[in-house]
Amino acid sequence: xxQLKRAVHIDFHTMPDIPDFGQNFDAARFAxxxxxxxxxxxxxxxxxxxxxxxxxxxxxxxxxxxxxxxFGQTVEECAKRGxxxxxxxxxxxxxxxxxxxxxxTVVNKDGQIIYGDRTANFFRNMCLNTGYRDYLLGMIRxxxxxxxxxxxxxIDCLIIRPCYCNDCLESIRSAGRNxxxxxxVLAFARETMLRFCREVKTIAGDKLLYLNGLKLSDTEELNxxxxxxxxxxxxxxxxxxxxxxxxxxxxxxxxxxxxxFNVNWGDFGGIKSKASxxxxxxxxxxxxxxxxxxxxxxxxxxxxPAVYKxxxxxxxxxxxxxxxxxxxRAVADIAILTPAxxxxxxxxxxxxRMLGELKxxxxxxxxxxxxxxxxxxxxxxxxxxxxxxxxxxxxxxARGGGIISTGRSGLxxxxxxxxxxxxxxxxxxxxxxxxxxFKSNVDLGADVPDSLCGIYNQAILIQAKExxxxxxxxxxxxxxxxxxxxxxxxxxxxxxxxxxxxxxRSGNIFQFxxxxxxxxxxxxxxxxxxxxxxALEQLIPAPSLKCENIPSTARVTLTAKDGMRIxxxxxxxxxxxxxxxxxxxxxxxSDSTVSIKCGPVxxxxxAPERKPLSYERQGEYIRIxxxxxxxxxxAVAEGEPAEP
Length: 644
What we know:
Helix content: 25-40%
Largest sheet: 9 strands, mixed
């Protein structure tokens, strides 16, 4: 199967009222532009959101002004140039079929088939328990048979929506379930969706397949690879790194699908800055995944040369790094656990942001993964300890590993007590206060004031047993924030020490009583980060990576390949501008150092030029000197480093 890298995802959702459709399209020029931009793979348009086909289909509805086989010519010309093509089908949207077959649409609980913003995308959706299912499968099969050079399929907008249409309700009742029970309706919608996906998998056979919009837990055995769709200026720059940190551990190829858009999908008039696209691509290779850039092709003129000039400049740069990035893996000291397969939450985003600012290395795992290679495990905010996880955590503690557990994490699945005796703490129920405080009992550094700090996102109350200690004390307010009929109690100063810890330590276990990671996403309190930093310093005295004179806005990661340790230093970072976050400038940095734990090295250099870097051996580390970093730098220590 092809190695996926330097890809482009081409949207082509085209309204019917464009009479000069395809007039200036030339498939050879299209493919040449991709080749010049160093593109190796594309998702190309077979059927769009509107419902039009871009090939002479015997089943579907071609665009009304289609005069030639646009999709077929695209596949043919790309194949000549070694560019792989996956056929794009929108599965969840088909507005033309929704118009012509109202009985094929999702009916919401209020009996509506049209709802929401009618100038947007999702104001009507398709039901796969109707004739639409056979219609769509027929088109996918038609493309698979007609165009054998197609290397795969990308099926979009597969969102599980409860449907209250007659077909679904009758099917639910026939199965002995209750059509008035929303849970039964949703469960049937999920079963319907997954049945359809398995049928698509049968058609795809051994070709590439990506089913976009579904939970990872639903598609693990169906998707051949992963595409993390994220336009960060609109979706947040915290979305991608957390998901990459999880998905890269699932044994499949992973693409970061960003976009050339300054605003969002379908933004024909917005091209992001070069620094912004570089940032996203650097984020990908820094996280041991590859890249895809989303575009939207003009219906008359084809690809925009300015867009592919930009993509080409960035992709030619990435290509030079591929001797070090192809098949590299992330090096990580910390395992951040999810409560379920693929469940990456706000708390995980907060943990990743915090660890990125602190320059710690991490992966996100679920309980099925091996924890033996990690120095510390983080249970962020709400990770119950199942019997399987209990076994793995106890083995981790026996090896001398550490645990940071926050909020309701660490409790048994019933939420009644801490699941492992080594916690050595009592669970005293939910926290009744909505405006409480803590005071650190440890030195958090010269920049952290010795004062009470707000908790902001309460979870539980804890009490340390004999042998456990309080790292930070819990202080309660005079009263909760509330309305008593006369006053809104907004001003809630701290009153007194509550006789319990806010953060307790037992051996190598730190338990925080509050949701520190979700809170960091909402409030970004520096003291919260420095409290986590203190705990990590106790648990990981010799991390794989250490940095000097590198700001918190920078991201530094560590990957490995073929006896090499590869340090990625990225300085571009977003700036809030109104309601969007924008990257326009490359930041620079002088006279910084990175230290990596490794064995003997033959040479240390700056890739891709292989420019030698000065370094010194300090025990089990080598300390690398960086005179200047402009936007991004890749420092390579080549030799035979010890496995992390």
